[in-house]
């Protein structure tokens, strides 16, 4: 009864179950790891302007302008089940209109094998820091923190926040000069 | 030696001819069992994860290099779990049949819990406002199909392949059905 079909079927089934088993062990071996690390963030220039947001409502909204320093070493975060890190720098603050605002200012993809020691000085943000209204001017408590989303070869997709965040405040007057 | 005899189809047909009524009924029942348990697993996953589509296949390269075409994502969609920036959400847009898998990059939440957010694909240069419905600037919770929690590479390429070549799909399905119905345990 050992036809081509039964032999082929057995081979494929065995290969697939071995692959599934290996993939699952790969997932199990890394699922309980602690991926937290320290990062140091600092702001260099902080300005706020009040300009029309043509991307959204066309009304005048607060536009923050921030340059930042960032140092961190993410080499230890990588292991055999980390394919990529998606790094993102979030500004989180509260306004009278919204109890929670989160705006991603900058992000970076680090693949396994890439340099994971980061030391940026006076970096510009990648995205505009638009508020949803006029809540940035004179905002005394804006926190800036780094997080990373771990993309595995197979497994969960955890997001981890770096210890060490930076709190800064916006000036009480709108900047008039062009930035 | 012909292909038919190589695959012993004649022998399988012989198997079938030798079956009595009870046996063939049993074969049909076990086939129905397979179909219904697949459906039960899918519906059960929907209940456990809270998402209308707990497993999705990535169809575009807009999240590369994290997700490629044919990768599988496992979703959950618990109401009480808040949406936060950096999460990968799967959302539906009015007028588009296919859900989109992108990352939240901006979020505003009011005191009463209403939340609006903006998404962007990692591999795209601009945010998703161009993909949303006309005059839609933000997504809200009701647009979410699920949030990506687990990742399995390559497996979904089979469904993409079958959707692109429906004839192959029907061929595979009918061969499997014939095999299950005719094969004697």
UniProtKB/TrEMBL annotation, chain A:
Main location group: endoplasmic reticulum
Coiled coil residues, start to end: none
Pfam families reported in the protein's UniProt record: SPC22 (PF04573)
GO molecular function terms attached to this record: hydrolase activity
Localisation per UniProt entry: Endoplasmic reticulum membrane
InterPro entries per record: SPC3
Family under the similarity heading: Belongs to the SPCS3 family.
Protein name listed in UniProt: Signal peptidase complex subunit 3
Organism: Drosophila ananassae
Gene field: Dana\GF18886
Automatic annotation (TrEMBL), chain B:
Topology within the bilayer: Single-pass type II membrane protein
BP GO annotations: signal peptide processing
Domain Peptidase S24/S26A/S26B/S26C: 42-129
Annotated Gene Ontology cellular component terms: signal peptidase complex
Keyword Phosphoprotein in annotation: no
Catalytic activities: Cleavage of hydrophobic, N-terminal signal or leader sequences from secreted and periplasmic proteins
Primary location recorded for the protein, binned into one broad class: endoplasmic reticulum
Complex and partners: Component of the signal peptidase complex.
Family the UniProt entry places it in: Belongs to the peptidase S26B family.
Protein name: Signal peptidase complex catalytic subunit SEC11
Organism from which the protein derives: Drosophila ananassae
Name of the coding gene: Dana\GF17183
């Amino acid at each position: 009864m050992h036809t081509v079909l039964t032999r082929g079927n057995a081979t494929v089934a065995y290969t697939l179950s071995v692959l599934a088993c290996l993939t699952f062990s790969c997932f199990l071996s890394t699922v309980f790891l602690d991926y937290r690390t320290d990062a140091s963030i600092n702001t260099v220039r902080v300005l706020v302007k009040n300009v029309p947001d043509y991307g959204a409502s066309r009304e005048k909204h607060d536009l923050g302008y921030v340059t930042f320093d960032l140092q961190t070493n993410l080499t230890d975060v990588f292991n055999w089940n980390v394919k990529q890190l998606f790094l993102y720098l979030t500004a989180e603050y509260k306004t009278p209109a919204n109890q929670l605002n989160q705006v991603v200012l900058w992000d970076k993809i680090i693949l396994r094998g890439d340099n994971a020691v980061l030391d940026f000085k006076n970096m510009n943000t990648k995205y505009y820091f638009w508020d949803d209204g006029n809540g940035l001017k004179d905002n005394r408590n804006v926190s800036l923190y780094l997080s990373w989303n771990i993309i595995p070869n197979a497994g969960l997709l955890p997001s981890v926040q770096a210890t060490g965040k930076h709190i800064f405040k916006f000036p009480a007057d709108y900047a008039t000069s062009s930035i | 030696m012909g292909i038919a005899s190589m695959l012993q189809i004649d022998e399988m047909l012989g198997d079938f001819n030798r079956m009595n009524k009870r046996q063939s009924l049993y074969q049909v029942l076990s086939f129905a069992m397979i179909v219904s348990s697949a459906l039960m697993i899918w519906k059960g996953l929907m209940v456990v994860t809270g998402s209308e589509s707990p497993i999705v296949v990535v169809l575009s390269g807009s999240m590369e290099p994290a997700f490629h075409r044919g990768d599988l994502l496992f979703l959950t969609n618990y109401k009480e779990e808040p949406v936060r920036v950096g999460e990968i959400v799967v959302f539906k847009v009015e007028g588009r049949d296919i859900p989109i898998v992108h990352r939240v990059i901006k979020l505003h939440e009011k005191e009463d819990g209403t939340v609006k957010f903006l998404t962007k694909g990692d591999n795209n240069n601009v945010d998703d406002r161009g993909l949303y419905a006309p005059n839609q600037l933000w997504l809200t919770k009701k647009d979410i199909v699920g949030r990506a929690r687990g990742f399995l590479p390559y497996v979904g390429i089979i469904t993409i392949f079958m959707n692109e070549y429906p004839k192959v799909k029907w061929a595979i399905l009918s061969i499997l059905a014939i095999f299950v119905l005719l094969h004697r345990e």
